[in-house]
Write a structure and sequence with these properties.
The chain is of the alpha/beta class. The protein has 13 helices and 14 strands. The radius of gyration is 22 Å and the shape is globular. Magnesium ion binds next to α1. The site of adenosine-5'-triphosphate (ATP) has 13 residues, from β1, β2 and α1.
Length: about 325
């Protein structure tokens, strides 16, 4: 089957006053039709740049990108028609109402008699009571919902969401994910970037991680989670951890998290804390989550699965849409 999205040896450099900036280096991977795929990476890793190239808003310095088989430069119109993009930046036309802006977007893609779908979008994204409101009158989170609706108005088979939940409240996030998950079940491909790693962990079947413009990990979410130290001690303390434990620890205010491979190492860590006189409150022992994996990979530790899995195995994996059928 034609991949929904294919990145082949994508390089991107920006000319800056201080010389050339390499934003993307040799990015190559495919996203299959029906996948819910996560693209993660710290600020400046190159996620938005890659999405801009996909959307035809920026040109790759070299390499090839296709959407549903259409090359994004030579076959721009077909590629763009296959894509619904929710941009990271809030951009909107202040002169129109919510419904008008959706109608205009429909027209832009040549979709006529789209009223029923527009109503469904307004309903599904919790915008029904704002349909007549001017874009200027909306709060930031509501504007973001309208951007999502605009991206979906022509029923694109491939949906790209660049930080769709930044600044969005909990209830809205749940509404949004229910709606997107339903479209994914019905066969849409979803590419998501987010800094909320628990969202990525819950939603994405596969994840690619970018670091300084390179793909440093790409695997099924479950494999990424399985490949890391499996146990995590979490507790509160006012004391400083002993230096020899800091390498495997993450400290956020009073909360300390320490990785351990197995039960024996858990015991060793506890013994070390006791010996160092560290007072431990509210101790919990749990599984490592995607945030732990992410930090491990970004901090340069040998990532559990660096390169792409072999093609054949890769393609044998059922997609969410296939599972749903
Ligand atoms: N138009 C541009 N001109 C010059 N440099 C740029 C341009 N756009 C992006 N960059 C640089 O390219 C790099 C990647 O930026 P990009 O916006 O793709 O990161 P990102 O992964 O989306 O980050 P964030 O998580 O903050 O959204 C950064 O170093 C950024 O400064
Ligand atoms: Mg970005």
């Amino acid at each position: 089957m034609t991949p929904a999205i294919s990145f082949q040896q994508v390089h991107k450099t920006f000319a800056t006053p201080r010389g050339e900036l390499r934003a993307l280096t040799d990015v190559s991977f495919d996203i299959r039709q029906g996948e819910f795929f996560g693209l993660l990476g710290p600020n400046g890793a190159g996620k938005t740049t890659l999405i801009s190239i996909l959307a035809g808003l920026a040109r790759a310095t070299s390499g090839r990108v296709t959407v549903m088989g259409h090359e994004v430069v030579s076959d721009y119109a077909a590629a763009r028609q296959s894509l619904g993009i929710v941009p990271q930046e809030l951009v909107f036309d202040p002169f129109f109402s919510v419904r008008e802006s959706l109608r205009i977007q429909s027209g832009y893609f040549g979709v006529k008699h789209n009223g029923a779908w527009i109503d469904e979008l307004l309903e599904g994204l919790g915008l029904a009571d704002k349909a007549g409101a001017n874009m200027r009158q909306l709060s930031g989170g509501m504007k973001r919902r309208v951007l999502v609706a605009q991206a979906l108005v022509h029923r694109p088979p491939v949906i790209v969401l660049d930080e769709p939940t930044a600044g969005v409240d909990v209830e809205l996030r749940q509404t949004l994910w229910q709606f997107i998950a339903r479209l994914n079940k019905q066969g849409s491909t979803v590419l998501l970037t987010t800094h909320y790693l628990e969202e990525a962990e819950a939603l994405c079947g596969r994840i690619a991680m970018l670091k300084q413009g390179r793909v440093v990990a790409l695997d099924r979410t479950s494999n990424l989670l399985a490949g890391t130290a499996s146990t995590m001690l979490r507790f509160k303390t006012d004391d400083t951890l002993p230096a020899d434990l800091l390498g495997q620890s993450r400290v956020t205010g009073r909360i300390a998290q320490i990785k351990a491979r197995d039960a024996i190492e858990v015991e060793a860590v506890l013994a070390r804390l006791r010996a160092a006189g560290v007072r431990v409150e509210d101790l919990e022992i749990g599984r490592a989550d995607l945030e732990d994996v992410f930090l491990e990979i970004m901090n340069g530790a040998e990532p559990p699965h660096v390169t792409q899995p072999p093609r054949a195995a890769d393609q044998a994996e059922p997609t969410l849409a296939e599972v749903a059928r």
